[in-house]
Specification:
This protein is 33% helix and 26% strand. The chain has 145 residues and is α+β, with helices and mostly antiparallel strands. The model has no long low-confidence stretch (mean pLDDT 93).
């Protein structure tokens, strides 16, 4: 079952995020307090929208981002998405993205953007979901040390 993400889902999403990104290939060590602050900030941002997928008696995945008005219609920035490590490669991520796109279409969203690591399994997943590398946009970064 898929549904809109609610503020009461935040604790379960934090736990899911920490456990998922601790697994290969990421192997990241996230402090739950930092994840909570990050997700809570996104949820409290005007235009925030998220969806969850339920399986096995709880939240098995979520997608969360922010809608912004743009001259050609609303654009959605997917900030975070994850599916429980043990539930990956079972179609849940695809179902979650399909539901997200359906809901965004109903909100008259014209484009969806995201950032992901180049060359890893996330890039492949998002390509299968219809994302492409934009020829018009680039990500630029600068370190502040």
């Amino acid at each position: 079952m898929t549904r809109h993400l609610e503020a009461s889902d935040l604790a379960a999403c934090v736990e899911l995020y920490v456990s998922t990104f601790a697994q290969p290939p990421w192997g990241e060590t996230w402090d739950p307090r930092i994840v909570h602050a990050r997700l809570d900030q996104i949820v409290r941002t005007p235009g925030s929208f998220g969806v969850v997928i339920l399986a096995g008696g709880g939240i098995a995945g979520f997608a969360l981002g922010i809608s912004e008005p743009w001259h050609e219609g609303t654009h959605f920035y997917l900030k975070e998405m994850c599916v429980a490590h043990e539930r990956q490669r079972q179609g849940l991520g695809t179902r979650l993205m399909d539901y997200l796109f359906e809901e965004l279409r109903e909100q008259d969203t014209k484009r969806v953007y995201l950032l992901t690591a180049r060359g890893d399994m996330s890039e492949s997943f998002y390509a299968k979901a219809g994302f492409y590398t934009s020829p018009k946009m680039i990500l630029m970064a600068r370190r502040i040390e």
